[in-house]
Amino acid sequence: MPLPRGLLLSAVLWVAACFLVTIGTHAPIQPTTGAYTPVVRVMVALLAVGACIGWPVARFGSARGPWGAARATLDTVTVLAVFHAVFWPLHLVTQWNMAQAFAMDLLLSGWIAAAGACIALGMRGSHRTSWAIGWCILMVGGAALDMAGFPAPIPAIAGPFVGFLHLADLGPAGMDRSAWAIAAWPSIPALLAWSAVLRMPTRAHGVAPAAPVR
Questions:
Q1: Which of 97, 102, 111, 133 is the most buried (most CB within 10 A)?
Q2: Considering only CA atoms, which of 137, 2, 159, 165 is closest in space to residue 57?
């Protein structure tokens, strides 16, 4: 199966746009980890917006035909590869230690994997708009409630943005069992969702074959 070149190009353009909006082309007057950490924090949050919301919504709105597990897996691997290629070099200029960076990576990777499973499940039927709306509510609903003064009892269940910002603000010495639980929790719904994908039939009855990968 060919690489989804359209998705890869879109991801690279999104990364470039996030970089220009946050870090820009000029280094801070004092290029220290303390100066870079806030802007990298915003950039990673914007990367999460693209990976967890922009990608699924774009697929639901533009792709044609049913999707199997292989196509959704290739999409997911592509998005994860771009995210990791950007995240790990960026963390080197911040005050985040390895444990903190790994926890943020684990949390966002879990949500990205869950987004891929959502695409695979939603692309099997004709209710793609409903899937897109429901997924967006799941991603931003917790953050909206948090901003309105109704925080979730556990940041992880409030979606990727609340969990990421919680981990990013802990500080190098703040990683404890609760922080690791927040980081690992998204992997559970991701694994359950992918299990559902793999149990589904490879081809829906009466549905035409999928269009080529873009």
A1: 111
A2: 137
Q: What range defines the domain where residue 122 resides?
A: 5-27+35-199
In a domain, 150, yes or no: yes
The predicted pLDDT at position 205 comes to 38
pLDDT of res. 203: 54
Tally of domains in the chain: 1
Alpha carbons 9 and 122: distance in angstroms, whole number? 23
pTM of the shown model: 0.88
**Confidence band, pLDDT 50/70/90 cuts, at residue 207:** very low
Give the count of beta carbons closer than 10 Å to the beta carbon of residue 72.
23
Is residue 212 situated within a structural domain? no
- Return d(Cα 55, Cα 79) in angstroms, integer: 9
